[in-house]
Hints:
Layout: E1 3-8, H1 11-14, H2 21-38, E2 42-45, H3 52-63, E3 67-72, H4 82-85, E4 93-97, H5 106-118, E5 121-125, H6 133-141, E6 146-149, H7 151-156
Parallel strand pairs: 1-2, 1-5, 2-3, 3-4, 5-6
Amino acid sequence: MTSLGVTGHRLSRLTTDRNCDRAKQRLKDLAKAVIQKHQPTKVYCGMEWTGWDKAIALAVLETRNVALVACIPYEGHQKQYAKFLSQFPAGALEVVIVSDGGYAPWKMQRRNEYIVNHCDQLVALWDGTKKGGTYNCLKYAEGRVEAVNVWDSWVNHK
């Protein structure tokens, strides 16, 4: 069994285009390509609902032969995408609430650690900036799991 973890930037970090439909389509295409290339049976996703996480979750839903593990950082965070998650067929979705209680900033990193600790490979969409959640997730992954950055594919996609 091959499992992927994903980490990456939100849409606002990926484009300055006010009409971001083109960027969303590019993200969707890249996410599908990642799923097709790696052919995971399971994907661990942090469920930040813009950008890379959303694109990956949508690609998993369309694939139908891949299970999604929705890694929710804290209680209540999953309510914003409950409708989306309800579209997954039985057995194709696992929801894990990583930390009890409500929001706290540190719970985002704990969620990232959960993803790294449970996947065979981490696929990042990271611009190289040495700050923020994606960077922190990749730093944590060092020495624990192979990480692949698909930033060049994002930048060079026409």
